[in-house]
Amino acid sequence: MTMLARTTAEGTRILLRSDPQSHLTALALAVPAGRGADPEGRAGLAHMVEHLALKEQRSGQSPLSFSLNAFTTRDLTVYETVCAPEQAETAARSLLRVLSGMPHVNQTVLDIERRIIDVEAGGVGGPMDRADSVMGAHQDRATVTVADLIAFHTVHYRPERAVMAVTGAADPDALTSALDLHPRGGVAQQPTTTSPPQLLRPVQRNKGNGDTTHRFLAPSVTSPHYAVAAAVCVGLTGAAAHHFDLAATTAPHAKSLQHPGAFAYQGRLHPGRAASTLVLTVHHPGRPFAALRPRLDPARAKAETAGAIALLREDPLLAARAEAGWALYRSDGLDGLANAVEAAAPDAVLACANEVLANV
Amino acid sequence: MFDHQTLLCRPSLQVVTAHGHPASTALSICLPAGRVDEDDSTHGAADVLAALLDAAELRDATQDVTALWSVDADEFALSCVLNCRPLYAESAIRDLANRWRRILAFDPCTETGLRLFHAARAEAAARQQGAAGTRRGIADTLVDAWARGLDGLPQSRADRTLALAPEAFRRYLTAAVAPRAFFAAHCGPEPERLAPALDRFAVSWPGADPTAQHAAHAPLTAPARAYLVPAAGPTAWITTAWPSVPRHDPRHRISAVLATLLSAGDGPLLTRLRHTGGHLYRIEARTVALITTGRLLVQGEVHTAAAQTCVRAVHHAVEEAGQGSLDPHMADAARRRLLTRIRHAVATNRGRAADLASAHLHGLPPDHHHEIEAGILAVPDEALHRFARELADTNAINIVIGSAQAAHDHAPANPRMPR
User: Fold this and answer.
1) Chain B partners within 8 Å of A58 (Cβ)
2) What whole-number distance in Å separates Cα of residue A121 and Cα of residue A123?
3) Cα A88–chain centre separation
4) Cα R_g (chain B), whole angstroms
5) CA distance B248 to B238
6) A142: pLDDT confidence band, cut at 50, 70 and 90?
């Protein structure tokens, strides 16, 4: 499963990793524009652009045989789909279309989308209707204009800034030919970051709902210490490989929501360029994370983190999402993260975990 | 595409295995004992058993904490699903076999047993409370009661579970659990390496009854119902459900295509209610296909002021489909989307193992995917129209959960929607 790097005529990086075992093709287009790119007083703008770019993409098109979805995180906006292999070219063109402007957006379309996002946020005053969420608060969204949307899209949705990953039953040669792709030369640009903290530091602790949540400031994804934080996250949360948020998604495991008692521990590491966030949640107040101290094994934690990455690759959609997202974070992508985890010193993992446990 | 073979066949445990990805092992073990085996005195026992099996006290102290099983009880079965690195699978199976042995010997009337029983009962009730406390949970409870011929919200499952007596739980273990045989599905590398551990599991279990006996399906003729459940909050939750068919019924695939079409991004509901009206973010149409019955549900969170408009639009979309107004291109797209969704659900080892086990419980052959894929593509438009027409002529349940404003629709009238 070698990764091939290509580029479109417009400059969008295309990563192709075919899996002969798969019967589906998955595609994810990542744009480096998330909540963090929202201008002052326009919280939620990146998320509104996500909605409207997806709507633009569908404008005037015939019914699709696959579903297109998108989500916005702190750093990224990702558009994605999974489809039959014979639909891969159509799907790729559909995703690339979100980069080509928003000529149909007008005040009416914007007003309708505001109402839609109001519901998505749980209603005006609802749980996600907050300035610090990716959706922003209702009053912030109310100030967004059509000009704001178009300006944001023009600045952040430049084709050369985006990466599209294609995984699963993809035929790299066929796609290269159909989309007129070219071999990519040179080394991808590394985003600049501020100096990351080496170890985890608690930034917030709250209780509510019967659950206990601990938040920590974690190293940037571009720091070698990020791999240590990843191993600590997985090591402390046991087998929660599917909870481990390598792909920067915000979708939690459904079961843990429907059955709050079903999992004793939940750990999520939200990657970030300047700094990441590690969130540990204990669903049983009587069984705190500190109880895990005697069981923490750095070697096993590292192995489980590598296992979490391998599990991501079983599902072509998760794999495409992760490959595209990580290619925006670091030039060596998900493979680079796996290698960094492999290279992390067990002593560093143990020291970092102990520091976390001392604060939970 | 989905090859499989029998790995083990013992009176108490049958195991099938399928090739999968090399990096993980997935194993789904089911015991056909569920809520259907409860009576008035043993209500909640299936969930308490799941919580007990999941209790830390029953685990092997040396067991790797990173190879957890997820345990879940439903109407017809108790399922344990493992997803871990292949290295840990053998010890995880030994741990599970040990836990089941301890369940067999479990006596809730001893001092230790009673303490564990109380903890598991509280855990099960907490899970039920958590599941039923959401707006979706309230709606699902109402739909479930309606399908059983009841009216309104029954007594809370959690309250009834908390009343479960230790003697009744022991009776449930003796009558519904111990006599049954397990079925397991494995997906991943080196199945032969796991066979000895699974065989020891089989030897240690006395049950040999491979299937639970369920009443034959009878057409559901539930009365029409409408509920407005008061709830605070700036949005409302709407649910409409119709009786449908069980999973083994050939019409299940027609029902699934219709549901896919109704919830498609460019389908009739999202076009009218989201893209044109801005009334909602997402509306989900899905089939719930059980062993003896089924239903088709449409659910979504909407602006409170548009709740009634949205419920009417759901019915209108089904009526339109019944009148033969479905766009053939859209119907074809829905068939292909459904195929992709089914393939995606079994793309991982975990999904494949869970599907194999579920197929066994529903009386379907392990290779049912071949037939499903061909069957879905062959669903004619006329069959979709006919199925929608039957739904439109059937009594449905409509539920709106929200503030009082949800009862009075102030949404702008859409000329394409009847009021």
Assistant:
1) 265-266
2) 6
3) 22
4) 23
5) 28
6) very high
- Written as six digits, the tokens of B131 are 């599941």
Contacts of A22 in chain B (CB under 8 A): 347
Enter the tokens of residue A346: 């067990």
Interchain contact, A261 vs B123, CB within 8 Å:
yes
Alpha carbon distance B378, B363 (integer Å): 22
Q: Averaged over A212-231, what is the pLDDT?
A: 85
- The Cα–Cα gap between B202 and B50 comes to 19
Query: Which residue, among B25, B84, B85, B121, would best test binding to A if mutated, counting the most A CBs under 10 Å from its CB?
Result: B85
Q: Which of residues 85-114 of A touch B (CB under 8 A)?
A: 87, 111-114
pLDDT tens digits, B198-249: 999 999 999 898 765 555 555 556 788 999 999 988 899 999 999 999 888 8
Q: Write down the H helix ranges in B7-110.
A: 45-54, 86-104
At residue A317, the pLDDT reads 93
B63: closest CA of chain A, how far (Å) = 10
Least confident of A237-241, A281-285, B189-193, B394-398: A237-241
- Short-list A241, A311, A246, CA closest to A276: A246
3 state DSSP class of A256:
helix
Q: Is B170 left (phi over 0), alpha (psi -120 to 50) or beta?
A: alpha
Judged by a CB distance cut-off of 8 A, whether residue B416 touches chain A is no
Classify residue B222 by burial, with Cβ atoms within 10 Å: 0-12, 13-18, 19+.
buried
Test B83 with A241 for CB contact under 8 angstroms.
yes
Q: Which residue has the higher pLDDT, A147 or B86?
A: A147
Burial of B386 per CB tally in 10 Å (0-12, 13-18, 19+): middle
Q: Which residues contact A160 (CB under 8 A, 6 or more apart)?
A: A10, A11, A12
What does the pLDDT average to over A129-156? 95
- Chosen from B65, B71, B141, B271 to mutate, greatest number of chain A CBs within 10 A: B65
What is the Cα–Cα distance from A315 to A136, expressed in whole angstroms?
Answer: 31
CB-CB: which of B85, B266, B339 is closest to A58?
B266
Provide, rounded to the nearest whole percent, the portion of chain A with pLDDT above 90.
Answer: 45
Least confident segment among A250-254, B187-191, B267-271: A250-254
Q: State how far residue B85 is from chain A, nearest Cα, in angstroms.
A: 6
C-alpha angle A319-A323-A325 in degrees, rounded to nearest 5: 115
pLDDT at A170 over 90: no
List the structure tokens of A332: 């060596």
Residues 6 or more apart from B248 whose CB is under 8 A from it? B291, B362, B363, B364
The predicted structure's pLDDT at residue B115: 92
d(CA A339, CA A327): 14
More confident residue, B392 or A333: B392
Q: What is the pLDDT of residue A264?
A: 57
Can you give the pTM of this predicted structure? 0.89
Report, as an integer, the average pLDDT of A236-263.
Answer: 39
Distance from CA of A89 to the nearest CA of B (A): 16
Measured CA to CA, the distance from residue A265 to residue A277 in angstroms comes to: 17
Separation CA A210–CA A190 (nearest Å):
42
Helices A346-357 + A225-236 axis angle, to 10: 60
Amino acid at B34: G
Radius of gyration of chain A (CA): 20
Of the pLDDT bands very low, low, confident and very high (cuts 50, 70, 90), residue A283 is low
Which residues in chain A (10-69) have CB-CB distances under 8 A to chain B? 21-24, 55, 58, 62-68
Chains A & B: contacts with CB separation below 8 Å = 151
Q: If you ran DSSP here, which 8-state letter would residue B42 be given? A: G
